[in-house]
Design goal:
By secondary structure, the protein is α+β, with helices and mostly antiparallel strands. The chain has two domains: about 160 residues, no CATH class; about 45 residues, no CATH class. Helix content is about 40%, strand content about 15%. It has a five-stranded antiparallel β-sheet, sandwiched between helices. A hairpin with a 5-residue loop joins strand 2 and strand 3. The longest helix is centred in the last third of the chain and has 29 residues. The radius of gyration is 18 Å and the shape is globular.
C-alpha cells in the first residue's frame, strides 16, 4: 500500500471540504444548459486531486497500490447526456476503468449501488444509468500509461470541458448550507489552499498559451503568489 495513501487523502478532502458544498440542483441545470457551473465544480475536484496526489500526472505508484479515484466527465454514447463523475482506475492494469460515481441530483452516487442491498440507492443508480446509457469517459488527470482511452478521440463536447475547465471558477456553498457539522476554520483553510492553486494554474496556463502564440510571459509582479504549496 502506498504509505501516503493519496487516494484516501483525496476521498477525505472531497468528503469534508467539497462534495457537501456543491449545489446539486444548480449542477443538474448546468448539465442541461451551458455547463459553466459544472466546469467550475470540475476545477475544484481536479485541484483537490492535484493536492492529494501531489500532481496531475499519475502512474502505477500513485494512489493505493495503483488504484486511484480521479475526477472526470462522462457522456452517453446515444443519449448525449453529460455528467461529472469520479472515476476509479487501476493504474497497475494500464488504466483499467472499474467504477464510476455520478455527480447527479442525488448527490454523489456510485453506479455500483445498483447492485447493492439499499433499495433506494439501487433504484436511483439504475435510474441514472438508464438515463445516460452506455457512455464515454474522460478525466482531468494525465495518465501516460492508460491504453484504454484516447483523449483525442473523445466527443467534442467532452473535450471542450476537459480542455477548458481550468478557466472556470465558482463558489461552493457556505458551511451553514451543508449537513456536515464541525467544518470551521480548518475547512475554510483547505478550500483557500485549493483556491490559491486554482488561481495559480489559471495564470500558468495563460502564460503557456501566450508562449504558444508567440507572446511573452507576464511580468513577475503580475503573477499569482503561492504557486508552490508543497515546499
Amino acid at each position: 500500500m502506498n504509505e501516503t495513501n493519496n487516494t484516501d487523502r483525496y476521498i477525505g478532502i472531497l468528503n469534508s471540504h467539497i462534495l457537501p458544498f456543491i449545489d446539486y440542483d444548480r449542477l443538474l441545470k448546468s448539465y442541461e444548459t451551458d455547463m459553466v457551473y459544472a466546469k467550475g465544480i470540475l476545477n475544484w475536484l481536479h485541484t483537490a486531486m492535484v493536492m492529494a496526489y501531489d500532481g496531475e500526472v499519475l502512474d502505477e505508484y500513485a494512489g493505493d497500490e495503483g488504484f486511484v479515484i480521479i475526477p472526470g466527465v462522462i457522456r452517453g454514447k446515444e443519449s448525449g447526456k453529460m455528467c461529472l463523475a469520479l472515476l476509479e482506475l487501476d493504474l497497475t492494469s494500464s488504466g483499467e476503468h472499474y467504477g464510476t460515481a455520478f455527480l447527479c441530483q442525488y448527490g454523489l452516487l456510485s453506479q455500483k449501488a445498483a447492485y447493492g442491498t439499499d433499495t433506494v440507492l439501487a433504484a436511483q443508480a439504475k435510474e441514472i444509468s438508464r438515463q445516460i446509457g452506455a457512455y464515454d469517459y474522460g478525466y482531468t488527470a494525465k495518465i501516460p500509461g492508460d491504453i484504454h482511452i484516447d483523449a483525442a478521440r473523445l466527443p467534442d463536447a467532452m473535450k471542450d470541458i476537459l480542455d477548458g475547465f481550468w478557466k472556470h471558477s465558482t463558489e461552493l456553498l457556505p458551511d451553514s448550507a451543508s449537513p456536515v457539522v464541525g467544518m470551521g476554520a480548518d475547512g475554510e483553510n483547505i478550500r483557500e489552499e485549493i483556491r490559491v492553486l486554482m488561481n495559480a494554474v489559471v495564470i500558468e496556463n495563460q502564460m503557456m498559451e501566450l508562449m504558444e502564440d508567440g507572446g511573452q510571459y507576464r511580468p513577475a509582479h503580475q503573477r499569482q503568489a503561492g504557486w508552490r504549496l508543497w515546499q
